[in-house]
Write a structure and sequence with these properties.
The chain is of the alpha/beta class. It has one domain: Amidase signature (AS) domain (Amidase signature (AS) enzymes, Alpha-Beta Complex). It has 16 helices and 13 strands. The strands form two sheets. The chain has an eleven-stranded mixed β-sheet with strand order 1-3-2-6-8-7-12-13-11-9-10. Strands 4-5 form a two-stranded antiparallel sheet. Helix 8 packs antiparallel against helix 16, helix 10 crosses helix 12 and helix 10 packs across helix 13. The longest helix has 24 residues. The radius of gyration is 20 Å and the shape is globular. The two termini are 17 Å apart.
Length: 466
Amino acid sequence: MSDDILYMSACELVGHYRDQTLSPVDVTRATLERISAIDGKTNAFIVVDEESALNDARQSEERWRTGEPLGPVDGVPTSIKDLVLAKGWPTLFGSRTTDPDQPWELDAPCVARLRENGAVIFGKTTTPEFGWKGVTDSGVSGITRNPWNLDMTPGGSSGGAGAAVAAGMCHLAIGTDGGGSIRIPSGFSGIFGLKPSFGRVPAWPMGRFGTLGHVGPMTRTVEDAALMLTVISQPDHRDWTALPYEPREYRDGLDQGLEGLRVAYSPDLGYANVDAEIAEIFASAVDNFKSLGAQVETAHPGFDDPRAAFRTLWWAGAANGLSNLTEDQMNLVEPDFAEIVEEGRRIPLLDYIAADHQRAVLGELMMEFHREYDLLLTPSLAVAAFAAGTMSPRESDDPKWITWSPFTYPFNMTKQPAASVPCGFTSEGLPVGLQIVGPPFADHLVLRASYAYQRAYSFADRRPSL
């Protein structure tokens, strides 16, 4: 019964709570037991607060007993990435430069909204130092591993969240995405992850990579992500970059299907080097999309690889984000990241402005593209998960994580919503993701398309054996 509880969707859990056929206390205990049993293998958590979790679960149980839940996620076990503030626990940012012995009295907006809606927030998931790379290991937490194959990486930088959700160690997880950090681990770990439109989910304090950074849900099902987005998109006065609040239940309209939608697909965006098996699985996923009634055709958006501009913006953001560290603290920073920071410090102002202009041109191009196409499909990643503790499957890759994730970072630059939905497995049993990109602000459309695909071609019945 415990495994059934652990892999039940959050929406199903809430239905059972309402009918009083399941208790938040029982679900939370099962979750904590699961973590105790297997997180020694995956290393997905840096904090697990059993006492606080069970206390919150007991309060939730009483609210459901009296018919007065705080919100749609009341009693659902939820984790927070260690880049996101959660009061009562240190937020170390995966870095030895962060002093844990200081007041931790504030929640980030998404955490505050989840707490206000009754979620059982029980722990923090691992991240590389300051979320700087597409895999998850750090001097603080060690190496996080993929539940489908413990020798492999779950991706990053929300790798702890991806591993935890895939392994049945939490139902809802907060991730962040500054260049693919929700979609990379979702693709490698076989779960659903949504990078919402920039500003859809209020964020505070602003991340080190500025308007490239998004906060979003990581879940096993699209419906759960929609449930979560309904909560975490609620407004917060601290984020001056947030979109005007749209009081929307994101589960509404999920079942409208794909009939009549104009969908473009690009197997390589015109520049990416994609592994043959990934390309084959992606082609099959496109055929599946066609069978769901959408009008699907090949169409590259028409931009060159924006890697150089992204690198300029991201490297400069890293330099600025760590500008307050002392020399002694910088000596504690991971050497590869310290090198990026140093390169970022040397970027001329005019080069940064030119990169920002290229970003604007890319955004304009995609706005024009979406006048013709409702959605764009690409592979989530160019490769399957590779060895844990390494940054790339190929020694020649430079820069390491950008080379094998060519489909993710362009859409951080354009601020568009983009999701990774599981679409198959390699011959080695590793998950593969399909990326679905929507026009700016069309988060509901990306969720709707993802739901249609997942409902027809679900891999949710496959679970890693740990």
